[in-house]
Amino acid sequence: MTDGRVTAVSRSATHTFSKAPEVGIRLLEGLGVEGDAHLGVTVKHRSRVAQDPTQPNLRQVHLIHAELHDELEAGGFPVAAGELGENVTTRGVDLLGLPVGALLRLGDEAVVEITGLRNPCLQIDAFQPGLLKRVVGRDEAGEVVRRAGVMGVVVTGGEVRPGDAIEVELPPPPHRPLDRV
User: In the chain, which stretches have pLDDT less than 50?
Assistant: First the structure.
């Protein structure tokens, strides 16, 4: 079942906040996006490396739904694909509603397993002042709600391009809701 589409793909070889759009990216099994600074078996995010560089890299691929870009732009915060640091921009998939362990088939070959939510940081406000409050908030119960995309690991490598179909496969129940990784 086709659930959505890839609208853009991006990467950066250095630890920049935004990633440059590409005509295609290659996902490498167990590693992440070829040529991206976050490629690797162990964690590559600088703050996490400082804590424990041996942690497994549960953030190999960052995905954001284009619907968030639409919402932000309507609120006066124009954001293009890749500018929030995502590798894959999607449309038509409720990324934030997926459970831990959901599999996303991107195109003909690549499969990414969703590990959790991106935990947005103050760099977002450095990119556009006030943007952090648009992507992190609290629900009626006072719980933190993170809306800046999801993170995953590459289960099966392959090429991913804009226009590729996305198929979602849910893990067996009971489903665990996403938390920050």
Answer: 1
Q: Please report the domains of the chain, with CATH numbers, ordered by start residue.
A: 2-169 (2.40.33.20)
- Who contacts 5 (Cβ-Cβ below 8 Å, separation ≥6)? 90, 91, 92, 163, 164, 165, 166
CA distance 103 to 166: 10
For residue 2, what pLDDT is reported? 56
Rounded to whole angstroms, how far apart are CA atoms 73 and 160?
26
CB–CB of 107/154 below 8 Å?
A: no
Exposed/middle/buried for residue 123 (C-beta within 10 Å: 0-12, 13-18, 19+): middle
